[in-house]
């Protein structure tokens, strides 16, 4: 009997026990405050990470500008600048749509871990992320850009890479400013970061809360 009691005393709680304790210990007002806090924190942190990542395509684009004044490098430099600006546009104006919590748990572990290292606190992503309005463009034109921006940019990066290979330059030279591999590398990283910044639909959390309340 003593052994049985000792084992019960040191029994580790299961995940379901933690969820039941949270549901029993939080009323409707506490849940609303928690959701609001999570939404506010995720909005500010996602915006900060997006702005920081914009430096990756924009800084090289500025460094390509002096190469526009040389006849031999004007065309590849224009192509590289166009690709880098398109990558910046994709990151800022074309965020991926929100996903349901069940399908994005594993994906957002890396995002939450990275943010914890900066903020020192545990964070979650529970708000929908809408596309930024495109200035000076009609909704129809903006939709066309959302549809074709990434494929056209990828094709442009492929042409620059093929040109770099045809010139038989070293890998190190191709990854420097003026090299043909830079736009492709930036686009690949931006697409990965864009996926990591994908958020979880807050509507799913709201429906879960009301379903728990109704039950």
From TrEMBL:
Keywords: Membrane, Transmembrane, Transmembrane helix. The keyword Membrane applies. The chain crosses the membrane at residues 73-94, 145-163, 175-193. This is Uncharacterized protein.
